[in-house]
Design a protein that fits this description.
The chain is α/β, with parallel strands linked by helices and about 425 residues long. It has two domains: about 15-180, no CATH class; about 255-425, Histidine kinase-like ATPase, C-terminal domain (Heat Shock Protein 90, 2-Layer Sandwich). Helix content is about 65%, strand content about 10%. The chain has helices spanning about 1-10, 15-40, 50-75, 80-95, 95-100, 105-115, 120-140, 145-220, 225-250, 255-270, 285-305, 345-355, 395-400, 420-425, and strands at about 275-280, 310-320, 320-330, 360-365, 365, 370-380, 400-405. Strands 1, 2, 3, 4, 5, 6 and 7 form a seven-stranded mixed sheet that branches. It starts with a helix and ends with a helix.
């Protein structure tokens, strides 16, 4: 734990340390190069006035360069930035007129300031102008082509070195900020997973427990033996829920479609709803099976809580690898105002199905004996694998609960209950 904390602390301090190191490098380059230039000028045959003036400008340029670099490394704007750079540019080129090629390379500090202070094409255009104008200026003063080319090379190298050092430090800062964002995103996704799993688990369990408790209450008066059997099942369900809650907290919970089918049938029967199941010969991978198990659990919970159903159809089919889970019940409660998909449970299921490249659809089609509620989950044959690029790149349209079209040929025509024909019973 202590090692993890120290590593996390080191990661947090990474950008400030990188910025400090970059500033030290810039300062060392500035002092070293400008100091060497001072010594060359002082030992030259230039006039005393030229030497003194050049030394003053050298000191001023060193201070300006460190100030510009410090502001850029901290992500701050320089006050009077354009005026500041203009003054630095003038000071970087003016001494060429009275010390000649002894000033070679000094304009590179201005070039570096331009590259890491300005952005876009304008910065590179201005840098290109400095690179071209500098050798022309040296040649105009010294009439020596070699000295002009040497000055150009020194200017470009100094400017690019300063730019690379500052840019690298800023890249470290940007990458660190991205890592922090990704860490926060991972925490958020884990919280959403926990909330979703908890809703799916407890919502179903509490509804099932309530139904079983009501059934036990009715049986106590005239069939105590049957009531004892129901109590034993209730205790077993509660213990299983307790174990699953622990798995949810640790992220190890995987729903089984086979177990969920058995549980769904038991829950429907306990609620006095006749189940019609059709799912023979369906083979699913663990992830897709777990997703359909969650859909089935939420659908059955909604049937028990939000309808006075007498029948419920659960049909699972596969065709060319694509899988469809259909749950239909009769006598749903009146639909609330607004979108029928405005449900946290259905929204959670929509997100789960969308992660596998599928779609969740809901509708309330009219049947011969009243309205029905229909839920369908569709999973494609091939879906993105978790952890691979594109696994979470789901468009908003896929995440939305889509309305069911009344013209769908799967809708039952002419059957009084609208359930037996769908189930194949």
């Amino acid at each position: 734990m202590g090692d993890a904390q120290s590593k996390f602390g080191a990661d947090i301090d990474a950008p400030p340390r990188a910025q400090a190191l970059a500033l030290v490098i810039v300062t060392t380059i500035s002092i070293g190069f400008l100091g060497a230039t001072l010594l060359h000028i002082a030992s030259s045959s230039a006039s005393a006035t030229s030497i003194i003036l050049s030394e003053i400008i050298v000191v001023a340029l060193g201070g300006m360069q460190i100030q510009v670099s410090a502001h850029v490394l901290r992500g701050r704007r320089i006050r009077w930035g354009r005026l500041f750079l203009t003054l630095q540019g003038l000071l970087a080129h003016l001494p060429h007129f009275f010390v000649g090629d002894l000033w070679n390379g000094i304009p590179g500090f201005f070039l570096g300031s331009v590259l890491f202070s300005l952005h876009g094409r304008g910065a590179w255009l201005l840098a290109g102008c400095v690179t071209v104008i500098n050798p022309l200026l040296v040649y105009g003063v010294t009439h020596d082509a070699r000295s002009a080319l040497d000055g150009q090379m020194c200017t470009v190298l100094v400017g690019l070195i300063l730019f690379a050092v500052v840019r690298l430090a800023n890249q470290v800062r940007d990458v660190h900020a991205l890592q922090m964002d990704l860490a926060q995103l991972a925490v958020t996704k884990e919280r959403l997973r926990f909330a979703r799993d908890l809703h799916d688990l407890l919502g179903h369990t509490l509804s099932s427990t309530s139904v079983k408790a009501e059934r036990i209450h009715r049986l106590l008066a005239h069939d105590p033996q049957a009531a004892r059997v129901e109590v034993a099942e209730l205790i077993k369900a509660i213990r299983q829920t307790h174990a699953e809650v622990r798995k949810v907290a640790h992220g190890y919970r995987h729903l089984s479609l086979e177990s969920e089918l058995v549980s769904a049938r038991s829950t429907l029967q306990a609620a006095g709803i006749k189940p019609h199941f059709s799912h023979h010969g369906v083979a699913l991978a663990q992830r897709s099976g777990g997703t359909l198990a969650a859909v089935l659990r939420e659908a059955v919970t909604n049937v028990v809580r939000h309808s006075a159903a007498r029948h419920c159809v659960v049909q699972i089919t596969q065709h060319q690898g694509a899988t469809r889970l259909i749950v239909v019940n009769d006598r749903p409660h009146p639909a609330p105002a607004g979108d029928p998909s405005d449900s946290s449970g259905l929204q959670n299921l929509s997100e789960r199905v969308a992660l596998l490249g599928g779609t969740l659809l809901v509708s309330r089609p009219a049947a011969a004996r009243g309205e029905e509620f229909r839920l369908e989950a569709r999973l494609p044959a091939d879906y993105p694998v978790a952890g691979m690029a594109g696994a979470d790149d789901t468009s908003p349209a896929q995440w939305r609960l889509l309305p069911w079209k009344a013209s769908d040929p799967a809708l039952v025509q002419g059957n009084p209950d609208g359930v037996d024909t769908i189930s194949g019973a």
